[in-house]
Amino acid sequence: MSDTTQQLTYADAGVDTAEGARAVDAIRSMVASTNRPEVIGGIGGFGGLFSAAKLKEMDDPVLISGTDGVGTKLALAQLLDRHETVGQDLVAMCVNDILASGAEPLFFLDYVAIGHLEADRMAKIVSGIAEGCRLAGCALVGGEMAEHPGVMRADDYDLAGFAVGAVDRARMLDPETVRPGDVIFGLASTGVHSNGYSLVRRVLGVDGLVPGTPEAEECRGKLEAFDENLGESMADAVMKPTRIYVKPILKALAAGTPIKALAHITGGGISENLDRALPDTVDAIVDRTIEAGTGDTPGVAATFAWDVPPVISEICRRANLSPNEACKTFNMGVGLCIICAPEDADAVRSELEGLGEKPFVVGTCVEGTGQVRYADQM
């Protein structure tokens, strides 16, 4: 038991409220940089205030929410001491999901649990969150920084995010409108994004390493070295933030581009996300080719009609993954799938290209039961 005659402060218990106040001051301008006209006040209150006046412009406004985290990619961020981009990952995982319904992200909140709060490191994390919000056009209206001494290592942290968007019900994207013959386009990913990192970390040999130890520093040095196969260091490749697709897609939808459905390719890869944009009567046939063997054969190379980021190919090679396993683990270079009618394919492609995108054909839709299948296995 503690000696009750001696004062034991919150700081003595490991929580530094003064450092927390410094962290809030450090991020105040970053948060303000994400403001939209609907934002009321600033951070520091008990709740984030956001005017709902915009919803009056809609005949039947529907609010769409999404929440997610960054997962074990954070373990690499801590090992590499790279904290500036994981905040964008956090925002992307939430806003890309609500975009799949055709919704415009309106505001975002974050939750940071950390072993020991340091204002400078927190500023790096929140700078990435603010950048993600700017890329998505949504406001960062608040959040929470929770210090967990005795529960987490001092340098350990975890992130969670929450986004709210809105769409007029008549303009919602609906997978039930997808029909056989529809075309599936893809928009490129920037790399691994934020999924599959438990396997990535296993392949890179960083599991169990504690940041700052000699073993961790040795591993960090190897990951920071330039890799000719990647054209950059492995550290640069695996820490690229998740791409945010909100602005070009919303511009395309606002222009009346006839998009039927969207699929954000996240955990579960193409195989377990594209089916979420299908009705129960339609299958997606993804066009990939296998050089030898079958899609289930480990280590068999697959070629695609689009570019697969070198880092994904390298991780799959080191893990000796079969094409089928790769396609249900990683995005394989496809961050977002777009489905449209065949007669609208040229218009959709043209509109996206006019917005600076480079859409590519991923496959087509056929009669089925809501499955994702591969042309090489038919």
What does this structure look like?
The protein is flat and about 75 Å long. The model has no long low-confidence stretch (mean pLDDT 92). It contains 11 helices and 16 strands. It has 2 domains: 17-171, 2-Layer Sandwich (60s Ribosomal Protein L30, Chain: A); 175-194 and 242-377, PurM-like C-terminal domain (Phosphoribosyl-aminoimidazole Synthetase, Chain A, domain 2), CATH 3.90.650.10. Helix 1 (17-32) packs parallel to helix 4 and helix 3 runs parallel beside helix 4 (119-136). By secondary structure, the chain is α+β, with helices and mostly antiparallel strands.
CATH class of the largest domain: Alpha Beta
Spatial shape = flat
Strand-residue fraction?
Answer: 15-25%
Question: How many runs of DSSP E, i.e. beta strands?
Answer: 16
Biggest sheet record: 6 strands, mixed
* Helicity range: 25-40%
CATH architecture tag of the largest domain: Alpha-Beta Complex
Strand order of the largest sheet: 10-14-7-15-11-16
